[in-house]
Amino acid sequence: MNALRKAVRWSFAALVPGELVLVLSVAGGVRIAPAVRLAMEPAVLTLAAAAAALICLDHRRHRRAGLGSRAAFVAAIADTVPAPVRKLTTHEVFLFTSFLRWAARRGPHGVRDGDLPVPYAPGQTATMYGFLFVCVVETVGLAFVIPWPVVHAVTLVLDIWGCYFVIALHASCVVRPHVIGADGSLRLRYGALLDIRIPAGRVASVRREQKFPDGKLAVVDKNGVADMAVAGRTTVLVELTEPVRFVRALGKPAEARAFRFYAEDPAAVVTALKAGAVAAAGDRTRETAALQPAATGHRPSAEA
Fold first, then answer.
1. Which residue, of 81, 102, 131, is where some domain finishes?
2. CA-based nearest residue to 221, from 251, 191, 256, 271
3. For residue 27, what pLDDT band results from cuts at 50, 70 and 90?
4. Is there a domain that residue 136 lies in?
5. Is residue 210 one of the residues assigned to a domain?
6. How far apart are CA 211 and CA 228, in angstroms?
7. How many structural domains is the chain composed of?
8. 12 lies in a domain?
């Protein structure tokens, strides 16, 4: 069983990039040799059959362990499909749906009545449109420079996809802002790449603090602080009462005790989070008081 699972994981790592190259080649009008098709199609079918068998066996095992049907299926997928593949697949799906939401001018995702959306995309608009301009110039330039038809077709498909990716990434940041919940909770996001939920009771302090970190997105430093910079800048620091676990962009787990992030209006964020922290503290005080026994005002008499 373990040997089969390891073989399926390695096959995913080898065949998925190869299948992507074939799809791009076909989209670019490149003629695929019959021998290559005959080799790839049985390999993909074999991988799909082996993965399906493993998922069914793992699903049955998790069901026997007491999980529900949906939870058992998710756990079975996690046992078989590598985390980076799952994360990238989910990211591409969310990227496409976010692009559609942005194009249709629908409201922000995940914002309920009473919640406060915290935009951060405006801080990177100029940078993203600069990237898009460079991608368009590269696409047009290479279309005239490359003389070989096969290379020209593949490069054109990749460049067009690159332009779409830049637009969709920015669109996902627009429709997926940070969210301060009505209960004082905080949801930090960066497009479809990151989604970190911080309960209201975990917020210890919040203040405006402008920094220019140079690390990667949501990398936790030696002090336990994770930076979520936009265009290389953060404006708010939130310190927690205890660390929060989250999943980084490619599926790697991490833990942080403080977050620095960018908000277009940091003053409003600080005000809302402080109000939520006060409300959460009041709720905890009332709950504690309700659990304490009511005082009777006299001591019980001792028996002689």
1. 81
2. 256
3. very low
4. no
5. yes
6. 11
7. 2
8. yes
3-class secondary structure per residue, 255-277: EEEEEEECCCCHHHHHHHHHHHH
List pLDDT tens digits, range 68-118. 888 888 888 777 777 777 777 788 888 899 999 999 988 899 899 989 999
Which residue, of 55, 81, 107, is where some domain finishes?
81
Instruction: Tell me the sheet residues that pair with 116.
Output: 180
Q: Provide the pLDDT for residue 169.
A: 92
Q: Which residue has the higher pLDDT, 11 or 209?
A: 209
- 226 close to 245: Cβ distance less than 8 angstroms: no
Label residue 1 by pLDDT band (50, 70, 90).
low
> pTM of the prediction?
0.72
Residue 212, phi then psi, degrees to nearest 5: -130, 75
Amino acid at 221: D
Pairing of strands 203-211, 225-228: unpaired
What single string gives the DSSP state of each residue in 213-233?
A: --S-TT-B-TTSEEEE-BTTB
Query: Do the beta carbons of residue 72 and residue 59 sit within 8 Å?
Result: yes
Question: In terms of residue numbers, what domain contains 226?
Answer: 178-290
Decide: 108 and 175 in contact? Cβ < 8 Å.
Answer: yes
Residue 205 within a domain: yes
Please, which residues have CB within 8 angstroms of residue 145's CB and are 6 or more apart in sequence?
Answer: none
CA distances from 3 to 6, 54, 80, 82, 85 (A): 5, 11, 12, 15, 19
Percentage of the chain with pLDDT > 90? 38
Distance CA 34, CA 37 (A): 5
